[in-house]
Design goal:
three-stranded antiparallel beta sheet; about 170 residues; Immunoglobulin-like; alpha+beta
């Protein structure tokens, strides 16, 4: 019984490992109608931002030839709704920011050449990524996933052979 639980646990870990993929994470600073990339990194994770696809701004990632790799709409996080209750009365309002930091997470593309963010049909950010990232080849996440899968498979084969001997 413990052997079955161990095998099931190993299988669940393998499935969870393969679900994550490499992503770009961009930290963007918005100020008075313009934006700049403050920080960027590539890591293993998920890219939910591209599934939103609604709002007044758009994000595009393109390759070195200008072809769109990723594109979606999103709302610039410039409004914050603040509500609170004071002596049984709901109060609050909307805070509108002219300066704000926010992040965007998108799937990793080895041939990414740049990103562009537009708001109200105006380009507020354009960044050439070729010098910052370059071509990366096989990522660390893929290597670790394969290594983990091989180790888990070897353990599984060992446990099955051991179970058959008994």
């Amino acid at each position: 019984m413990a052997l079955k639980k161990t095998i099931m646990l190993l299988m669940m870990i393998m499935v969870m490992q393969t679900a994550a993929a490499e992503v770009f994470v961009f930290k963007i600073h918005y100020k008075d109608g313009g934006a700049e990339v403050v920080d960027r990194l590539v890591k293993d994770g998920f890219a939910p931002d591209r599934n939103i696809d609604e709002g007044d701004a758009s994000f595009e990632m393109f390759d070195t030839n200008g072809n769109i790799l990723e594109g979606f709409r999103f709302a610039l996080p410039l409004r914050e709704f603040v509500d609170f209750s004071e002596e049984g009365i709901v109060k609050g309002g909307v805070i509108v920011y002219t300066e704000r930091d926010f992040g965007i997470v998108v799937p990793y593309h080895a041939d990414a050449g740049g990103i562009r963010i537009t708001h109200s049909s105006e380009i507020i950010l354009y960044e050439d990524m070729r010098e910052k990232f370059g071509m990366r080849g096989m990522g660390l996440g893929i290597f670790l996933g394969i290594a983990f899968g091989l180790i888990a498979g070897a353990i599984g084969v060992f446990l099955i052979k051991r179970m058959r001997k008994n």
